[in-house]
Design brief:
The complex is a heterodimer of chains A (225) and B (561). Chain A is an alpha+beta fold and 225 residues long. Chain A is 34% helix and 27% strand. Chain A has three helices and ten strands, in the order H-H-E-E-E-E-E-E-E-E-E-E-H. In chain A, helix 1 (13-44) packs antiparallel against helix 2. Chain A is elongated, with a radius of gyration of 25 Å. Chain B contains 16 helices and four strands. In chain B, helix 2 packs antiparallel against helix 6, helix 7 (243-277) crosses helix 13 (385-415) and helix 13 (385-415) packs antiparallel against helix 14 (421-447). In chain B, strand 1 (54-55) and strand 2 (59-60) form a beta hairpin. The chains are: A alpha+beta (225), B mainly alpha (561). The interface between A and B is large, with 91 and 96 residues.
Chain lengths: 225, 561
């Protein structure tokens, strides 16, 4: 699975990958087992090798046991998966840790406008840095985002951060991430948003501390602090 | 129930009241639409493998047209292929015959239901020819995208889409009323509800699910239409509306709809499997109850389509829980079907191959669904090709594979002739192999983060570098999968006239439809049908033969009607 997943670059990404892996192994083992049984029955009970079928209506609970017991085990595994998944969901979407800065992301057919708070870490001040389709964040710091849409529904998808959140007109949706690994990553719109949907993409640039300061310095609008 | 005397003559015969003729009309329309829907997918796959080339037949597919292909492929396959074939054709054909009735309870309503459906088909097809083309907002038609013409560039096409879908739903509703009334009132003497063949139960539960879930969507469609034309703002935040309202209305219908389609498919599989393995159905009562439970649960899972939609994140847990719970009754059903093969004596007709193939393929769809129902994993998988692959692994077996199982199985009853078995086998293996060749790469593309509904995968240079060969393989698979249906179509047409005469019961199957001649006359049975035992008495101990028919004929009419 790790061969295909894009490289993880967020603090919670490994936890999400962990849930995927847990599902992969539990479900995968069941799948192999069930498909094996199905194949075995399909071949073993070919009429050439098994001339007369048995009569198994399974009318009693005891008779149904070979179906009900595996189902009960599945339910148990389901609950294990659900518990693990809910924990990670809460971590990513509900228990939002405090952050030094909030970045505003405005989706509009077919661009992402990213408003960075600038050196003062405050949005809606003179030193805000607005960039088209490029988001800059420091590595190793929690960043909050405010997601807005000016027209249709878009979806803010950073595959390397394992982060996805729809942008809905009329709502301001808040979330967070902590990028861990400096680099440049793909930003994707994951919700069909019209003619230019396929072109609505951008980049997330994760800087190390020094690189982030350098970017702040070079990008700050004249007259800013 | 006799209305044979008022049968129309000549060309007027197309306006038939006979449930079997209506079933064949649904089947034919559904198959034609399946070719259209499959054809659209060829355009999508061509574009995804070689973006922006000048393709034969399709020409250049710019993103707007690509969106239209996506939208119409999904719409057609669900509403104009799955529904008319699995419910319209098989429901109509099988219910009266299997319960020993002479026709549906309301033959005229039945005819109206088909002609409404045909009208909806023409409205939908007309949208391909209007200015700016057909709807392009996805089969889910999320507003505001679908509410304002400027957002998709499509105007009249979207209106025609809404009207066509509404007409189609009305048609299915009328059909469902008929299915219910007929099954409850017209069963043969001696047949209890718990003696119904499983496929009839499945049609019944499907019809109920559809009736209970479609109301909110029809209301939603009316609101959408008003938003578009009357200046209302149900889904427009600027006027106090909310786009998420549509998603609730849509998925409250949309998820039960998945089971509306799946259940009849599983029912067909159960009929074919028991006859093919010469074995009684494993745990009939258990299956029926698990189907009812899954039907009830299907109304409580809709928001798992909306984990990352902007809904309060605290909603995720309860919906993830119900979603995971619904896997339990389906596990029971699948395991019971597999257990039906256990100690059977299996004969592989083409129908039987398709039935076993349905189970094997659906298992992949079911298990990968767990990854999407788990909210944390869904953050990543949502709206990627993983979802596309997953739902094709649920819908392709329940619609296409089960449909083929049903056609090969009941073709003799419908038309009095057998389909060619060798070519049926060839058709199965080609379909099975090329289906997996098409969709396994899409799971891997989804893992790599490939978003769905994008017209040009090459744009995602940072994310998908090195992944394009997977798209190529998937496309080749899709081309071959489409071509693999040619032997079926030839076999179907050839067998209509040249197939071996089938006789009344070529599969030595137990259910009551096989008591009638093939094809059955207008009033189905030459006498009264009495049910004398359960539907699946195969290899019953103490019986010489390996099958005992569920019904017998009494008071045969002296003059064949």
């Amino acid at each position: 699975m790790n061969r295909w997943l894009p490289e993880n670059a967020s603090s919670y990404g490994a936890r999400i990958d962990g849930v995927m892996e847990l599902i992969f192994w539990i479900v995968g083992a069941w799948f192999v087992l069930v498909i094996g049984v199905l194949l075995f029955f399909a071949l073993r009970y070919h009429h050439r090798w098994h001339e007369r079928a048995a009569y198994v209506p399974a009318r009693t609970l005891r008779g149904m046991a070979i179906v009900l017991v595996p189902t009960a085990v599945i339910l148990l595994f389901d609950l294990v998966i659900e518990t693990a998944s809910t924990r990670v969901w809460d971590l990513v979407k509900i228990d939002i840790p405090p952050a030094a800065q909030t970045v505003r992301v405005i989706a509009k057919q077919y661009t992402w406008t990213i408003v960075h708070p600038g050196a003062d870490n405050q949005l809606d001040t003179a030193d805000d840095i607005s960039e088209l389709n490029v988001m800059h964040v420091p590595a190793g710091e929690v960043v909050h985002f405010e997601l807005l849409s000016e027209d249709v529904i878009h979806s803010f998808f950073l595959p390397n951060l394992r982060l996805k959140q729809d942008a809905v007109p009329g709502r301001t949706i808040r979330g967070w991430f902590e990028a861990t690994r400096p680099g440049t990553y793909q930003l994707v719109c994951a919700e069909l948003c019209g003619l230019g949907h396929t072109n609505m993409r951008g980049r997330l640039v994760v800087h190390d501390a020094e690189g982030y300061r350098a970017w702040l310095g070079s990008a700050s609008p004249a007259g800013g602090k | 129930m006799q209305h044979g005397a008022s049968q129309p003559r000549g060309l007027w015969r197309v306006f038939s009241l006979d449930h079997k003729t209506i079933a064949k009309q649904y089947l034919l329309t559904g198959l034609v639409m399946a070719i259209v829907g499959g054809w659209l997918a060829q355009g999508m796959r061509a574009q995804l493998a070689w973006p922006y080339r000048d393709f034969p037949f399709f020409g250049l597919i710019e993103p707007g047209r690509y969106n239209a292909l996506v939208t119409m492929h999904g719409t057609i396959m669900l509403f104009w292929v799955a529904m008319p074939i699995l419910l319209g054709a098989f429901g109509n054909f099988l219910i009266p015959l299997m319960i020993g009735a002479r026709d549906m309870a309301f033959p005229r309503l039945n005819m109206l239901s088909f002609w409404t459906f045909l009208l909806s088909t023409f409205v939908l097809l007309a949208s391909f020819f209007v200015e700016a083309g057909p709807a392009a907002g996805g089969w889910t038609a999320y507003p505001p995208l679908s509410a304002v013409p400027g957002y998709t560039g499509v105007d009249l096409g979207t209106d025609l889409w809404i009207v066509a879908v509404a007409l189609e739903f009305i048609s299915v509703l009328m059909g469902g009323i008929n299915f219910l009334t007929t099954t409850i009132n017209l069963r043969a003497r001696g047949m209890r509800m718990m003696d119904l063949p499983l496929v009839v139960w499945m049609q019944l539960v499907s019809s109920v699910l559809f009736m209970l879930s479609v109301g909110p969507l029809i209301a939603g469609a009316a609101m959408l239409f008003l938003d578009r034309h009357a200046g209302s703002g149900f889904f427009d935040p600027a006027k106090g509306g909310d786009p998420l309202l549509w998603q609730h209305l849509f998925w409250f219908f949309g998820h039960p709809e998945v089971y509306v389609i799946l259940l009849p498919g599983l029912g067909i599989v159960a009929e074919v499997l028991t006859a093919g393995a010469r074995k009684t159905l494993f745990g009939y009562t258990m299956i029926v109850w698990s189907v009812i439970v899954s039907g009830l649960l299907s109304f409580l899972v809709w928001s798992h389509h909306q984990f990352v939609s902007g809904l309060d994140p605290r909603f995720a847990m309860p919906f993830a829980l119900t979603t995971i719970l619904i896997s339990v009754p389906f596990a029971v059903q699948l395991f019971a079907l597999i257990a039906t093969l256990w100690r059977g004596s299996i004969r592989y007709s083409p129908a039987m191959l398709f039935a076993v193939g349905t189970i094997a393929t659906f298992l992949v769809g079911g298990t990968t669904g767990i990854a999407l129902g788990a909210s944390a994993a869904d953050i990543y998988f949502h709206d990627t090709y993983f979802v596309v692959a997953h739902f094709h692994y649920t819908l392709f077996p329940s619609v296409i594979l089960a449909m083929h199982a049903g056609i090969y199985h009941w073709f003799p009853k419908m038309f009095g002739r057998l389909m060619h078995a060798k070519w049926g086998h060839v058709h199965f293996w080609l379909t099975f192999v090329f289906f997996h060749l098409t969709f396994i790469p899409q799971f891997l593309l989804g893992l790599a983060g490939h978003p769905r509904r994008v017209a040009d995968p090459l744009q995602f240079d940072l994310l998908l570098s090195g992944m394009q060969p997977y798209n190529l393989v998937s496309t080749i698979g899709a081309f071959c999968l489409f071509a693999a249906q040619v032997p079926f179509l030839i076999n179907f047409c050839w067998s209509l006239w040249r197939g071996k005469p089938a006789g009344a019961n070529p599969w030595r199957a137990t259910t009551i439809e096989w008591l009638a001649t093939s094809p059955p006359p207008h009033d189905n049975f030459p006498g009264e049908v009495v049910a004398v035992r359960g539907p699946y008495e195969y290899s019953t101990p103490g019986s010489e033969s390996d099958w005992l028919p569920q019904g017998k004929l009494e008071n045969a009419d002296s003059v064949a009607s």
